[in-house]
Specification:
heterodimer, A: 435 residues, alpha/beta, OB fold (Dihydrolipoamide Acetyltransferase, E2P), Rossmann fold, five-stranded mixed beta barrel, five-stranded parallel β-sheet, 9 helices, B: 62 residues, mainly alpha
């Protein structure tokens, strides 16, 4: 057998492949080693892996014209460009080049497969985070009622960042929000690592800076390449962060996984700024409300107290009045009792006096009567003793020289003077005879 | 004689009465005494009368 030249061999392989293989196959593979050539072509490898182990791979070419149309359609449907690690369903034609060897020319890439694939991966991530209890973990941190100090993760050159700063710094109420930027790449292959590093920097500054919250913002520009925010590691870093993380990633399509594990998810940086300012406004409103209530309740209580006081003073007055009335009535009745008892006493005294008077009078008259009777009896005695009345009854009285006969020492010859009623008889004693 | 107080007059009257009872005096003296005693009785009666009137008057006024 005559040995073949390499050219002959390669021509044989080429002919065999062309005769044996279909012109077109649909294959599933992961994009790896993706490169864009200056001419507008794209070169990469389609790889099949089991875990991290590569089982098979083949070179793939996307020629300029195909690349332009396929990539545009792919981006518009999936929101993402072709890149490494992406699983794709590609329509390929196997091509063997004598010089460059075996490769496939990619004719088409089905974006709906990648979309579904991405959704599947996303769901897997969500399921894993759910199982690990990380979905609402960050949401458990208490967000202060007024968020005054924030650490910002963003790209300093992003339009969204500038707008955000402008919005929080020139608010009409002049609320002051302290903010510090931790710059990060917000898209591309390095974005996840960069974002996580920024979170680590904030973590290192926590004690010193004491921020109320972390704000991750990304705004403006294309709605492309949000895949980094669906990354499991970033989601975990956000979930486990010890203070609340707010997101304003500026996408409209749907939630990213970072949003799911964040404390509070907002659509855009503008919405985040509004959220922060709203916390101030709400607090101020509550403060004003509290002041109003305080004012109202103070007035109410003052009014109540005044009314109570009035009522009390009325009560006191009424009680006092009735007490005074009662006392004055008591006093009156006492006075009346004193007067009436005094009158009684006076009456009794008067009666006593009158009876005394009467008995005095009576006694006196009695006395006078007694005296009169005595006088009368004396007068009668006198009358009886009067010599004239004796003479009247026929008796006479004799005496010698003024001495009654029975008392005088009579001598014969003495002159005896005898008195009768109408006569005075002188006689001489002739004989004295004792009886 | 009119100037005698009632008690003195009564004493005097007693004295006269006892003297009259004794009968030691002469008839003339006795007559004099009776006269005096009658006078005394009259005066005393008058005095009692006026005293009674005075008393009645005084109590009437009260």
């Amino acid at each position: 057998m005559t040995p073949k030249s390499i050219v002959e061999l390669n021509q044989l392989i080429q002919a065999t492949l062309e005769s044996e293989l279909d012109p077109i196959y649909w294959v599933v593979g992961e994009i790896s080693d993706f490169r864009q050539a200056p001419q507008g072509h794209a070169y990469f490898e389609l790889v099949e892996k089991q875990g991290n182990q590569v089982l098979a791979k083949i070179k793939a070419n996307l020629w300029q014209f195909t690349y332009r149309t396929v990539a545009a359609r792919f981006e518009s449907i999936t929101g993402s460009g072709l890149k490494n690690g992406m699983k794709v369903l590609a329509q390929v034609a196997v091509n063997f080049h004598p010089l460059y060897g075996l490769s496939v020319n990619v004719k088409d890439i089905d974006p709906s497969f990648s979309l579904g694939e991405r959704a599947r991966i996303r769901q897997e991530t969500i399921d894993r985070l759910t199982v690990e209890g990380l979905i609402r973990l960050n949401a458990r941190h208490q967000l202060p009622r007024v968020i005054q100090k924030i650490a910002i993760i963003s790209s300093p050159t992003a339009a969204g960042y500038g707008d955000f700063i402008n919005q929080i710094e020139s608010n009409p109420e002049n609320y002051q929000i302290y903010h510090k930027l931790y710059p990060s790449m917000m898209q591309g292959n390095e974005a996840v690592t960069s974002l996580i590093n920024s979170l680590k920097s904030i973590f290192a500054d926590l004690d010193q800076l004491k921020p109320d919250a972390v704000v991750i913002i990304r705004g403006g520009g294309a709605q492309l390449d949000l895949d980094c925010f669906d990354d499991y590691r970033l989601a975990v870093a956000i979930a486990r962060f010890p203070i609340p993380v707010l997101t304003g990633i500026g996408h409209e399509r749907d939630q990213s996984i970072a949003d799911l594990t964040a404390h509070t998810q907002l659509k855009t940086p503008t919405a985040v700024a509004e959220f922060l300012l709203a916390s101030f406004r709400e607090f101020e409103e509550n403060l004003n409300l509290a002041l109003t209530r305080l004012d109202r309740s103070t007035r109410f209580q003052l009014k109540n107290a005044e009314a109570k006081l009035n009522q009390l003073s009325h009560q006191v007055k009424a009680t006092g009045d009735s007490r005074i009335k009662l006392e004055s009535e008591k006093f009156k009745s006492k006075a009346e009792r004193i007067i009436s008892s005094s009158r009684n006493k006076i009456r009794i005294a008067e009666n006593n006096l009158a009876s005394l008077e009467k008995s005095i009078l009576k006694g006196m008259l009695q006395f006078i009567r007694t005296q009169e009777q005595e006088l009368q009896s004396k007068s009668v005695t006198l009358n009886q003793l009067d010599p004239k009345s004796i003479f009247k009854r026929g008796y006479t009285r004799s005496e010698v020289e003024g001495i009654p006969v029975d008392l005088a020492k009579l001598k014969v010859g003495e002159t005896l003077l005898t008195y009768s009623e109408k006569q005075k008889i002188e006689s001489t004693i002739t004989k004295i005879e004792s009886k | 004689m009119n100037n005698l107080k009632y008690d003195e007059a009564m004493n005097r009257l007693e004295l006269i009465l006892s003297e009259l009872e004794e009968g030691k005096k002469s008839v003339d003296e006795l007559s004099e005494l009776v006269k005096e005693a009658s006078e005394l009785v009259k005066n005393c009666k008058a005095k009692l009368k006026s005293t009674e009137e005075d008393i009645l008057k005084a109590f009437e006024r009260a």
